[in-house]
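Final report, closing paragraph on structural work. Over the funding period we assembled a curated collection of sequence-structure pairs, and we close with a single example.
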Amino acid sequence: MTDKKDKEYWHIPKRTDLHQSIVFTMGVAEHYNKKTWNASAQDRLGSYLAKKGATNNGRNITPQSIRTLLAAIPQYFGFVYINSNTTPNTIEITEAGKKLIEENTDSINKNKFKNLIIGKKNKLTVNVSNVILNQFKKLQISNPFVEQFCENIYVFPLFCSIYLIKKLDYLTSEEIAIYLFRTKSKDELDFKKEEIEIFRNLELNKKNNLIKKFKETEIGNKSLVQAPLVGYFLSICKMTNLFKVEDNKISLKEDMLKVAENIINEMKNYSCFDFKDNKKLWIDYFGNTNINKPPQLFKLINSYTSEIY
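Its predicted structure, as stored:
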């Protein structure tokens, strides 16, 4: 059983191939939107990806791999979701998913290759997306689709990342794992900045010992060693085209500073909403590209002497 404190940590998906995720979303839109999500559909979707050159070796991937892929970028960024209110469950495309397809159809159809290894080698795969950037801006942790992995967290991850990088010039992988991923609300950010500055000023042997001890913990092992969540996070960050990643550091691109500043100015006025387990409300917000502001609760007071219906 997962310890509650272990769940007070950002959840990052473990499969972060943007090109494959786009082709997956296209396959759902073309053949399976609002249709039963079962092993047969998953198997055929695996075949679809192979035919489109969107698997590493050009061969079909298993239904299990398809389910893992779904839970990564497609569902994490609100492009596709499983509708559990239908019997049997169905898979559905959101408006955001349609935007992702619209943005990338020409590129996907133009650049043909047998598998992802060849595509990446020849620099033909899709690696950045404005739609991903817009969804990342809106993304809230936690939310109903990741609550099984993390809870008691109310942050916009992109806002937090940009905020700290602007204050500190960069973040290292270790700083992301030890400090950023533990951020539970935006009012902690200035405290996190102070913590990171103290960490940077430690003597080298003390700093290395602290990192070593962290890696020995379950969360440290998960984020930096066995399943390096930080690496997956950095891959997602690069998809936005806002960041450069080099020498174990992530920083903002010079030509994207204005875009980053605009995101900070917009998102600093928004508060996270506690969606609890309301997946429909989450999809209504996150899957709709015309909505940028999270839901709010309002109390209506009837000051009229008569009842109003």
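DSSP finds 15 helices and six strands in the chain. The two ends are 48 Å apart (CA to CA). We thank the funder for supporting this effort.
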